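Quick one - inputs below.
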Amino acid sequence: MSKEITSKAVDYSQWYNDLIIKGGLADYSAVRGCMVIKPYGYAIWENMRDQLDKMFKETGHENAYFPLFVPKSLFEAEEKNAEGFAKECAIVTHYRLKADPENKGKLIVDPEAKLEEELVVRPTSEAIIWNTYKGWIQSYRDLPLLINQWANVVRWEMRTRLFLRTAEFLWQEGHTAHATQEEAVEETVQMLNVYATFAETFMAMPVIKGVKSANERFAGAEDTYCIEALMQDGKALQAGTSHFLGQNFAKAFDVKFTDKENKLDYVWATSWGVSTRLIGALVMAHSDDQGLVLPPKLAPIQVVIVPIFKGEEQKQLIDEKVKVLQQQLKTAGIKVKYDDNDNNRPGWKFAEYEMKGVPVRIAIGARDIANNVVEVARRDTKEKMSMPIDGLAENIIQLLGDIQAAIFNKAKHFRDDHITDANSWAEFIELLDEKTGFIAAHWDGTSETEDKIKELTKATIRCIPLNNKAEEGKCILTGNSSSQRVLFARAY
RNA sequence: CGGGACGUAGCGCAGGCCGGUAGCGCACCAGGCUGGGGGUCUGGGGGUCGCAAGUUCGAAUCUUGUCGUCCCGACCA
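Output:
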């Protein structure tokens, strides 16, 4: 009983931390605000990455890699972007250390090794990328330019949380250049849809697609599209963003092209990204007090087989049977692990793999072999069933599919139950505090009102949903006229 | 950057008020009994008590300083 998890009803935040640490996803590190992603957590990221990468390539994108460092002068070029990120940038000012003459065995920054121009450790790569694109784009024939980068970025956050907000994090950032505004907007929406599909199909996490209000817009964007998810504590989490950048970066970095009519114009841009934050979202969307609940499509281990035996003779019998089963499951494309480690007893293993969120557990003992069955337990419902050994792989594939669908539906029901209309300020406050979740309310469309609401309630406009229906109403705070409801929530 | 908590074995903690040989649980090592929900018995290894000064015959314990981490908030993906 060495690995107890704090109940999420008692302390949601502690529950989340316990899952990450005890589930073996990540560890605290010696660096403030930075975490170590452990193999099991990294395996989830690899699965996310591989799938997203495939989807990016299917939509015509290529991968490239740009430098970690951005010369300050480039970083400054797009004013709004620079201003937005300035206060969370790490800066390289020197390139050398030397032995401390006053303190043996210690090093100090060599004052003679000061850089002429400081380097910003990228918090995002627009600047370095657009500076590069300038040299790559001359003609409409060079467009569209569709590039993605898998990278790490650094944002010096005041307060960090495992996966949700760390000073350094892994992500992908797509940066595209287009000949027309329409095409750039189309790209922005296309990538938003890729993210939404990924979140719902692979993470089993329902999301709302929408557009950000001006307050929440990416620094330097004309429009920020986003997918918003709901966590089990009723707080919203921005899971991905896709930005229409207009010609802002093209103008800042002087990226022009000649069109078919031989006219010179600035290119139109997009950028879009998702990060390791998705792992935090995944954890908070589905898990319970026994540990992680991972969707089969992203689980590093989809099926674990636990042998139950008395003595070597039984063990050998089981080993032989499992060897065959394991091969059948692998052939069927299932990620399966046989845990015949003799240090831990079955009960310990059951608890351990529940902690780690393995979707399906198969227990097999001499008794089962005699009956030509195995015991199958699903993580999401804890339900146990007996399955015939013959045709096991087909049944397991079916079961994995069922689990994927079940956890999506469960999350979707929860989410749908937590989108509530508020028609008065009093109702708005009560919903925020009691029911939580998304609150659909009228808003007069001004930044001032949004700021005021945030100040009073800590709730922000998560998004204006795409295809939002028009509805005349009065702003929840000011009573001014409004033409549609927007979604408010407290958010991560 | 404000508020709070905590630094003692790999992890989780006690000891501290009242200074006097460094403790517990888990984990680890060797072996036994075990095995269908975190089993059990025996034996064993592991510590400059975050760091630095000070008080004292003597400091994990008292004093001062310092560094670090986590949690809550503002900021943000």
